[in-house]
Amino acid sequence: MIDAFQKQRLAPTAQPRGKSVLIVDNDKKLMQCLARAMEARGFKVTTAGSVFDGLAQVRLSAPEYAVVDMRLEDGCGLDVISRSSNNDLTHARSF
Q1: How many angstroms separate the CA atoms of 15 and 35, rounded?
Q2: How many of the other CB atoms lie within 10 Å of CB of 30?
Q3: Neighbour count for residue 82 (Cβ, 10 Å)
Q4: How far apart are CA 7 and CA 51, in angstroms?
Q5: What letter would DSSP give residue 90?
Q6: C-alpha distance from residue 3 to each of 7, 35, 75, 80 (Å)
Q7: φ, ψ for residue 11, nearest 5 deg
Q8: What is the pTM of this model?
Q9: Domains, the chain, ranges and CATH?
Q10: DSSP symbols for 36-65
């Protein structure tokens, strides 16, 4: 028999509908891991491996969120956020 606490634990978590995230990282394995985790939570995920590609993806996909690596080969991940035109990103996190 399942009690109320177990039902709550088994219930699906609230899924963000229509939320999109850009993940910018030059470590492909980590980027794939993050992408799978975000997709499992209902996010539409776009990825990029550099600042240059990240900026292009911001223009193409207009994500609401960004998770960026601080140490990329062509700059700092924060460059993706600061150089995004018209503050396209609603929320951003760096690591």
Answers
A1: 15
A2: 13
A3: 11
A4: 44
A5: S
A6: 6, 34, 52, 47
A7: -65, 140
A8: 0.73
A9: 18-94 (3.40.50.2300)
A10: HHHHHTT-EEEEESSHHHHHHHHHHH--SE
How many residues appear in the chain? Answer: 95
Tracing tokens 């993050």 back to the chain, one arrives at 34
Structure tokens, 78: 């924060």
Whether residue 17 is predicted with pLDDT greater than 50 in this model: the reply is: yes
Q: Tell me the C-alpha to C-alpha distance, in Å, between residue 16 and each of 19, 41, 42.
A: 6, 7, 6
pLDDT tens digits along 60-92: 988 988 999 999 999 998 888 888 765 556 666
Nearest-CA neighbor of 46 among 19, 69, 70?
Answer: 19
Cα torsion for 19, 24, 27, 30, to the nearest 10°?
A: -20
